[in-house]
Amino acid sequence: MTIEKCIVNFDVNEVIFEEGSTGRELFVVLDGQVDIARINGASKTVIVTLGKGEFFGEMAVIDGSSRSATAISAAPNTRVMRINHARFVYLVSQQPAFALMIMDALSKRLRRSNDVTFKAANP
C-alpha cells in the first residue's frame, strides 16, 4: 500500500471515529488538530487536543477493544495518516524506537489520567 492511500483529509468538525466503534488502526496527525472527546447526548467534553506529530487510536490497535472516545478534526484541512494493525505490528517489531515512542506516550497519558483521577477523588 502506498503512503498516499494511508493519508486522509478532514474538514473541521468531521468525525474520524466514534466512541464504541471498532477499529484496528491508529492515526498520526500530519497537519491540523484533532480533538479526542467524550460525547454524552448534546454534551461534548474534550479530553485533549492533538497536533502535528501526535498520534491517537493506539489503544484499539494494541488490544482490539472498542474506541474509548470520539476523534473529531478540530481545524480545517486536518490530515492524518492511518496505520493499520498489520503495519503497526511490523513497525513495532522492526523499529524499536517506534515501540519506545508509543510506550513513552502511553506512560505519559496514563500518568496524566492518574493525576486527574487523584485530584477528583481528593478535592
3D architecture notes:
- The protein contains 3 helices and 8 strands, in the order ββββββαββαα.
- By secondary structure, the chain is of the alpha+beta class.
- A hairpin with a 2-residue loop joins strand 4 and strand 5 (43-50).
- The chain is globular, with a radius of gyration of 15 Å.
- The protein starts with 6 loop residues before the first strand and ends with a helix.
List keywords for this structure.
123 residues; four-stranded antiparallel beta sheet; alpha+beta
Short description:
By secondary structure, this protein is α+β, with helices and mostly antiparallel strands. The protein is built from three helices and eight strands; from the N terminus they run ββββββαββαα.
Q: Percent of residues in helical segments?
A: 25-40%
Task: Summarize model confidence as the mean pLDDT.
Answer: 91
Strand order of the largest sheet: 1-8-3-6
Order of helices and strands: EEEEEEHEEHH
The computed structural class is: alpha+beta
Distance between the termini: 51 Å
Number of strands: 8
Cα shape: globular
Largest sheet: 4 strands, antiparallel
Strand content: 25-35%
Count the DSSP helices: 3
* Poorly predicted segments: none
For the CA atoms, what is the radius of gyration?
15 Å
